[in-house]
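Researcher: Good morning. I'm working through a list of sequences from a screen, and I'd like to move beyond sequence-only analysis. For each chain I'm collecting a predicted structure so we can compare shapes side by side. This is the next one on the list. No need for commentary yet; just the structure.
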Amino acid sequence: MTLIQPVQSGEALIADINSTQPREGQVAIWWLGQSGYAIRTQSALIYIDLYLSEHLTAKYAQTEKPHIRMTAAPLRGENIDNAQWVFASHKHSDHLDPETLPALFAASPEARLILPAAIVEHAVSLGLPRERLVPTTGNETIYCGPLVVHSIPSAHPGLDYSEDTGYPFLGFLFEIDGLRLYHSGDTLVYDGLEARLKDFRPDIVFLPINGSDERRRQLQVPPNMSMEEAVALAQAVEARLMIPHHYDMFTFNTADVTAFEALARRENVPYRVLRCGERFLWPEE
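Model: Good morning. Structure tokens for this chain:
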């Protein structure tokens, strides 16, 4: 198949991220594929859930679930020399990439990785320096420079809480420059998630839409919320904007984003579908 090409990539994309200066109360967002984003506000630059290598394609090439890439990577880890606050929602390689993050850490000596406490040892095993890791057990508020970050448990498919290390799957609610932004990581909708998000009144919610089906269940692929569930959640918490993620990366585990668009329009849920590498400013000027 023909790879979907990013709108911007490489040095041009990094230059765009570096030169963009949102005003207070405005955010610039670049979708980097799958669930990965660069997010810049007036005071902070965030990278989250980066998958910028071919790790999974190589790992699963000779298996019953080959990870055939749909969208070309707009960056490699070594291109990212401007990172300070990096987030990983859970252990899976398309969210905590064994090839992207070591290269990013080498290129960005000030970078810190905020991640579930349950996966710290895994991150160290990948070569990430322990002293540059910021663990959270979930249901915590942590302070990262100008960022106020609330770690919110995710269910993928269970919450899997441990007394020792907390929740292994997390979402993050960022409060910064008058904005509240929620990135779910991978999750199902579980009892209590809607109420928790309503308390924060998020401006933008980043939610997965790939759901599951019988074939993926047989392959033991952990499920996410469906597009119907994601739209209903965005509607219930009265988000000002929904941005979908977890599609157009691997052929066996994606979603029809045009069907999502039709559904969101029908339900009157404000949304934006981003093209990989595209800069999106919100509120738009």
